[in-house]
Design goal:
Elements (H helix, E strand, L loop, with lengths): L15 H12 L8 H8 L2 H28 L6 H9 L1 H34 L1 H5 L4 E3 L2 E3 L1 H18 L2 H28 L6 H5 L5 E3 L15 E3 L2 H16 L6 H4 L7 H30 L2 H5 L6 H10 L1 H36 L17 H17 L2 H29 L14 H20 L5 H8 L1 H14 L1
Antiparallel strand pairs: 1-2, 3-4
Helix pairs in contact: 1-8, 1-12, 1-15, 2-3, 2-10, 3-10, 3-12, 3-17, 3-18, 4-5, 4-17, 5-7, 5-15, 5-16, 5-17, 7-8, 7-15, 7-16, 8-12, 8-15, 10-17, 10-18, 14-15, 15-16, 17-18, 17-19
């Protein structure tokens, strides 16, 4: 195996600060403002809500620490795709890249952009009230979807103008949402008149769920049931679908390793600093939910918008809605920018290996893979119109964790198979750190396979559809 050398310093346009902002900005989207409602419905206790976020935090940081070793060994663009290709061969790399293009990267861009549109509709009610542009049966195209596509295309265009523009935008929006989240956390403890902390924590380690709905699909607030044993394990796995999805995309920084100063050190620093900071922020935001809202208000927040309900308790109904709408708009806009910026580099690297469209190969005069960025943007826009982005995201948390596990296992595999390879950075507390991730990840995936199969098989099928595509591409490559 050949350890890749770094490019010359002229290409390095992203500092450690920029890389850390990319990690944090790509992670913080709309999930933290919404998914705690589903976690509470599955487990019904303040203790368990915190446990789910702590487990997710430990997983995320453990994976980032493990990835650091691979990022120091393969410091060029392509990140996780490159790691999987180098360790397990072209087919594994392709399957990851296939999943990334078809649903993981593009589906995330679509879903977060639509979230931007939905929260914009809080400030511009006409967006919600307008008749659909097109409707046929249950399928419709709305102005919110068009706004989402506009955001994707705008940010794609900005990122084709060079790394500098995307970097500046990322730093501004990520900095803004970090400051806003910290302010929300502080005010959530000082401005709330009635604290529900004691009530929410009063259930101790007892767990409950409430997933019953009426004929219209609305949750029944009177349907709480005590759960125990393996049912709690299933509840944790189901609850973690949301928290895991809210905590992914940090690996996007590895996709742009070729443009980061001193990537052998700064990529791992950015991943560990960024993931640790975000998971602490997420935990503190959930403390605010538990302090400002009772159990039913968290579990049955309108449209799962827990942050809106909490903000209304802090600032009052009118102001609170506006505050969170603006915060989510800033958060999702910055998140889409970070994911757009990073993704195009992977598809360009795949094209160099003959595993993607040749048109994605070349950089434009600004030194960025313009065509690769537009391919990503156009497919993400199509997913916005499909109306299926929400369903896609439900099932890709499983696939994302699966690929994380394969990559983390790659650290152990390389240590055994090629112990003498140069490792500028070695995983902290190896082998404990990667084993922790593999154990938690395996438990998460197995429990989902047992209890929530709707979150697993569809995503696996999408990835496995890449197998015949891989053999078709490989056959063409051999014939040419």
């Amino acid at each position: 195996m050949k350890i890749e050398k770094e490019d010359g310093p002229s290409k390095r346009k992203l500092s450690l600060f920029d890389a850390t902002m990319l990690v944090m900005g790509s992670m913080i989207g709309s999930g933290i403002f919404i998914v705690s409602a589903d976690i509470m419905r599955n487990l019904g206790s303040g203790y368990w809500l915190i446990v789910v976020w702590v487990i997710t935090g430990v997983m995320t940081v453990a994976a980032a620490i493990s990835y650091g070793e691979l990022s120091s060994m393969f410091p060029k663009a392509g990140g996780q795709y490159t790691y999987l290709r180098e360790i397990f061969g072209k087919m594994m790399g392709f399957l990851y890249g296939w999943g990334l293009f078809t649903v993981i990267q593009t589906g995330t861009i679509a879903a977060v952009a639509v979230a931007f549109g939905k929260f914009t509709a809080y400030l511009i009610p006409a967006l919600n009230d307008a008749a659909p542009i097109f409707q046929s049966g249950g399928y419709k195209i709305t102005w919110i979807q068009i706004l989402a596509i506009g955001v994707i295309l705008l940010l794609t265009y900005i990122n084709t103008r060079g790394v500098e523009g995307g970097k500046i935008l990322q730093n501004i929006f990520t900095g803004s949402k970090i400051i806003a989240l910290i302010a929300l956390i502080i005010l959530g403890f000082f401005l709330v008149k009635n604290s529900f902390w004691a009530d929410n924590m009063g259930h101790g380690w007892a767990a409950f769920n409430n997933l019953k709905t009426d004929a219209s699909g609305n949750f029944l607030k009177s349907g709480w049931e005590s759960i125990s044993g393996m049912t709690i394990m299933g509840g944790i796995a189901a609850a973690m679908v949301g928290s895991v999805f809210s905590s992914v995309a940090w690996e996007n920084v590895t996709f742009v390793s070729g443009e980061i100063e001193n990537p052998k050190k700064n990529v791992v620093r950015a991943m560990v600093l960024g993931t640790s900071a975000v998971m602490i922020l997420y935990l503190l935001v959930n403390f605010i939910y538990l302090n400002t809202l009772n159990r039913d208000s968290i579990a049955f927040a309108l449209n799962d918008r827990v942050a809106v309900a909490a903000s209304e308790q802090i600032f009052g109904s009118g102001v609170g809605t506006i505050v969170i709408a603006l915060l989510v708009m800033i958060s999702t806009f910055g998140c889409v920018n970070g994911i757009v910026l990073a993704g195009g580099r992977v598809f360009q690297t795949m094209a160099k290996d003959g595993m993607f469209f040749k048109a994605a190969l070349k950089n434009n005069k600004n030194g960025v893979p313009e065509r690769s960025l537009w391919m990503q943007g156009i497919w993400a826009s199509a997913l916005c119109l499909s109306g299926q982005y929400g369903n896609l995201l439900d099932m890709i948390s499983f696939v994302i964790v699966l690929f994380y596990m394969i990559t983390v296992f790659g650290v152990i595999y390389l240590r055994i198979k090629q112990p003498n390879l140069e490792r500028p950075y070695k995983t902290w507390l190896y082998p404990i750190t990667p084993i922790i991730y593999l154990l938690i990840g395996a438990a998460f995936c197995i429990l989902l396979l047992i209890y929530k199969q709707q979150y697993t098989w569809p995503g696996l099928v999408i990835v496995l559809l890449g197998v015949p595509v891989y053999f078709f591409i490989n056959k063409k490559e051999q014939q040419s």
